[in-house]
């Protein structure tokens, strides 16, 4: 089971020295921290770091108690990088160890979530001299037309909401 957004926020605040037994998190602090968390995760999504984090569903924001399906490998990166973003808002300075951990964790997460894009050959590229129709090859001496990667298929639709 994944962590909730509240657990990420509380862990990040603990990372900067605001433990829950010392500091009472107000609803305004929680909403500000949630907006920062959602913003950070949206930025990661744009950079290609996709970890199945549920984005904000409405203009008003997202549910702080929503359970995420983020893999365990991403937790350290989320907590330490959120701590880096929240620290100035609380007048705190992030330790050098947290900064180094955040840097290493995001580098590891980038490697963990990296996807090698598929390359399609242009239709002007010849298949090769060894590909003969009588050997079970194709009659067309050139590669097929590249396919559009956004096509959903004949029985489905792509919904952009």
Explain what this protein looks like in three dimensions.
The chain has a domain at 5-113: Hypothetical protein yqbg (Orthogonal Bundle). The two termini are 28 Å apart. Helix content is 39%, strand content 0%. The chain is built from four helices and no strands. 19% of the residues are buried. With 161 residues, the chain is an all-alpha fold. The longest helix has 21 residues, at 27-47. The model has no long low-confidence stretch (mean pLDDT 83). The protein has helices at residues 5-15, 27-47, 75-86, 96-113.
Give me the secondary-structure topology.
Layout: H1 5-15, H2 27-47, H3 75-86, H4 96-113
Helix pairs in contact: 1-2, 1-3, 2-3, 3-4
Briefly characterize the structure.
With 161 residues, the chain is mainly α. It contains 4 helices and no strands.
Structural class: mainly alpha
Here the CATH topology of one domain equals Hypothetical protein yqbg
Low-confidence stretches: none
| CATH architectural grouping of one domain | Orthogonal Bundle
| Order of SSEs | HHHH
Q: How large is the radius of gyration? A: 23 Å
Features:
single chain, 4 helices, Hypothetical protein yqbg, mainly alpha, 161 residues
